User: Which sequence fits this backbone?
């Protein structure tokens, strides 16, 4: 089964080897028929500490690395420069 891949904005890089990434999504509300915007934060493993706050990066699923980290930064995404 392929790994899920998502793109979002780095919100925090204060933890060592971890980037907190905010993923925004929009959907049509089933009753109000309006476009609704929701966001969720994911903790992603960043081995090289290369992510910078405000940067758009891609994350993909990985085996659990800790209690919260089940995602990792995709290498070669501009985050490892």
Assistant:
């Amino acid at each position: 089964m392929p790994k899920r891949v998502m793109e979002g904005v780095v919100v925090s890089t204060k933890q060592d080897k971890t980037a907190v990434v905010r993923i925004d999504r929009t959907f049509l509300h089933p009753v109000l028929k309006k476009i609704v915007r929701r966001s969720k934060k994911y903790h992603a493993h960043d081995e090289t500490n290369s992510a910078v706050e405000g940067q758009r990066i891609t994350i993909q699923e990985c085996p659990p690395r800790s209690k919260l980290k089940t995602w990792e930064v995709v290498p070669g995404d501009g985050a490892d420069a």
